[in-house]
């Protein structure tokens, strides 16, 4: 019966959840991002730190949207947990600073004590970065608890063994091509009418979606959903970032990886536009596997390399994606299972000095 209902209802339920859970408003998005960026720039501290860094020597890993749960049918992080732990072990040994962009804990569906009980290993792995003063934790809409609940500091002390500051965003600052470059990072839910702390979304997720998801074992984070053209929310994020001089914006929230303002599908379209012969045929074959039939090739001329999205750590096949900044480069990376091992793959890479900015 469960399999029959999965076949009949999965697409409809995911479409409904997407319509109800994301209603970004351009004016709200622009104002929220601008206010936060200005606040951190002028008064770094309470809402987020401004961190000078050396692009050649300092290293950062940016991950988001684990949605750690109770290891039940609705826990979309369960399959990815081993990849996440392998990634954190690697980045800690390599002396990366870990920036967590929010929705790390699924606190719309679960109580804090439940999350704490079922995710001890991940919290222990994160503590390794804290011990080196190399951990920045940013809240999202599904773990807004960390920012607005008076008991949150006590809860954080319980899982990390020391006080942990919670921020809305952070800015990395360096010099590239003799000009200041700002890397602005936040979860990305700001301005979303149904996700920016909205009571209706919380009710829908906890009382309707979670039980249904648990029974049908549905995870909407499939490669097919994430390889398409940018979501409306990601387009709004790009539009904001493209108007800022020498600024990169990195968010999470949509679970859709974006590199240099393009999704995987859009990158393929761009590469195909300049390819010939066998290479063009191979690129077209990849596009046909990812995209809808009879679609027209979009035009990406004039796009700037200003927007990046870390994707998520809860894909339905156990993969996780993230953004690395290291060796004067920015990279979109994936960790996937290879047999019993976790393998790091660089999906896209660019030197910071070569990015096309405003």
Task: Provide an overview of this structure.
This protein has 358 residues and is an alpha/beta fold. It folds into 2 domains: 302 residues, Purple Acid Phosphatase, chain A, domain 2, CATH 3.60.21; 40 residues, no CATH class. The chain contains 12 helices and 12 strands. α11 runs antiparallel to α12. The relative contact order is 0.17.
How would you concisely characterize the structure shown here?
The chain has 12 helices and 12 strands.
Which helices and strands occur, and which strands form pairs?
Blueprint: H1 2-21, H2 26-42, E1 50-52, E2 60-63, H3 81-93, E3 97-100, H4 112-118, H5 120-131, E4 135-138, H6 145-148, H7 152-160, E5 166-167, E6 169-176, E7 179-186, H8 199-216, H9 223-226, H10 232-241, E8 247-251, H11 264-273, H12 277-290, E9 307-309, E10 320-326, E11 329-338, E12 341-351
Parallel strand pairs: 1-6, 2-3, 3-4, 4-5, 7-8, 8-9
Antiparallel strand pairs: 2-10, 6-7, 10-11, 11-12
Helix pairs in contact: 1-8, 3-5, 11-12
- Spans where pLDDT lies below 50 across 5 or more residues: none
Number of helices: 12
Decide which structural class fits the backbone: alpha/beta
What would you call the shape?
A: globular
Number of strands: 12
CATH class of the largest domain: Alpha Beta
Which architecture of the largest domain does the CATH hierarchy give at level 2?
4-Layer Sandwich
Tell me the fraction of residues in β-strands, as a range.
15-25%
Number of domains: 2
> At the third CATH level, what is the topology name of the largest domain?
Purple Acid Phosphatase, chain A, domain 2
Main β-sheet description: 7 strands, mixed
Q: Give helix % range.
A: 25-40%
Report mean pLDDT, rounded to a whole number.
Answer: 87
